[in-house]
Amino acid sequence: MTVTSVPSGAPIPGTAGQGQRLQLLRVLGPGHVWALGVGIVLVGEYMGWNFSVGKGGMIAGLVACWLAGLLYTCVAMIDSEVTSTVAAAGGQYAQAKHIVGPLMAFNVGLFLVMAYTMLEAANAITIGFLLDTVAGLQGHEGLNQQPFIILTVMFLAWLNYRGVLATLTFNLVITAIAFLAIIILFVAVQLGASAVPLEFSAVTTDPLPYGWLGIIAALHFGLWYYLGIEGTCQAAEEVRSPARSLPYGTMAGIMTLLIAATLTWYVCSGLIPWEYLGQAGTPLFDAARVTGSTPLMVLLFVGTIFSTLASANGCINDASRAWFSMGRDRYLPIWFGAVHPKYRTPYRSIVFLVPIALIFALGAPLDQVVTFSILSGLLGYTFMTFNMVMFRRKWPLGTIKRGYVHPFHPLPAILLLAICSATYFAVLLGYGSQLISMMCFYILASLWFHFWRYRFVRRGDQFTMPWPRPIGY
């Protein structure tokens, strides 16, 4: 085991000795980054996105899919530039810390932890719901979902505890299988394997049942197709070549998701009436059931299970890295900044977040948990627009080495802000009380950090990038 020495006023808990700090291992490549990003998000094709159809109809669901795809393409481009330059655990938190300031960094860290923890809870709920559905098809009604929810979270937490390479290699395999399941379903339906033909009459007879406002409302759940692709940034401190692996893995990930999202809408909307599709718990599995093909049903059952496992697995990885980074910088108690002496993982952060995920998974309905995750993610994306503009102004091109330079600046940031603004309005239409509650939570957390926790932060220790003084300072 290698121990890297760094200057420190006091050793962090879990260190090898005075003045020495264990570091996360750099063992990941572009494929692992792809698996982390797509693995977290692909479950959005298997559940959750279809609520956008319920909000506005089939056409609104498709428009929401593509607008959200545009939003996340901007996210991926911006993240690829900034994170390949700020190659530190914590992703957007590390970016905010270096570019904006401590209070913004604290809030962004909370956005990340809440978004991923709620997404993890949603995945566990989906696994329990799917197993209950399959048991019902076999004549066993009323399956107790709670043991399966708990087992899922505990197993994946244990896997993350044991090491990042095994965790993301596992994600790589099951994510690839889940993506292939969508492709196979699409091809099989096109080749006539379905007992029910594709039917899109609702597109012409009732294209926008709730009018143009339905498109705005559908944006809320359209984000679920792609929510979490920004999680690739959390691997910045554990990839072998951040300048190469992060942009390649992130951009390949968003292209994969754009294809999967469009195929998912096409197959599900063609096989399932939009009134039912808008409230289905597992739309892709339901579409496979409609085909009447047992092999397709089994394949999409496996795909749904694998996609939810991959997503929950990646969420535990990302949430723990953000929480660990905040602890290491003393934004939270330094106890959370420990690295396991054998497995080299942020083990205390992993264990601490398990009961929080279980509370929401066992005690909240799926749409509420999805909404909490979307809102936290949306706040993070809004921050990214200002962060990107400040990054280019403080360190123009040519002043520091960048692993990737995204084109058309500042157009992606402007588009991202515009779509985020429309999505806030969409959330307000259906979940206004949740939006207000989340904003109040983050305001109270900010006050706590400003008036109490900030006194423990060592400003000089948190800036780790060897950059020149920013323009204007």
From TrEMBL:
Give the residue spans that cross the bilayer. 27-47, 59-78, 99-131, 143-161, 168-189, 209-227, 248-274, 294-316, 350-366, 372-391, 411-429, 435-452
Subcellular location, principal: membrane
Q: Which UniProt keywords apply?
A: Membrane, Transmembrane, Transmembrane helix
Gene3D superfamilies the UniProt entry points to? Amino acid/polyamine transporter I
> Which GO BP terms sit in this record?
transmembrane transport
- Which Pfam families does this entry report, sorted A to Z? AA_permease
Q: Does the keyword Transcription apply?
A: no
Q: Which GO terms describe its cellular component?
A: membrane
Residue ranges occupied by any Amino acid permease/ SLC12A domain in the UniProt entry:
40-431
What is this protein identified as? APC family permease
Its source organism is: Tianweitania sediminis
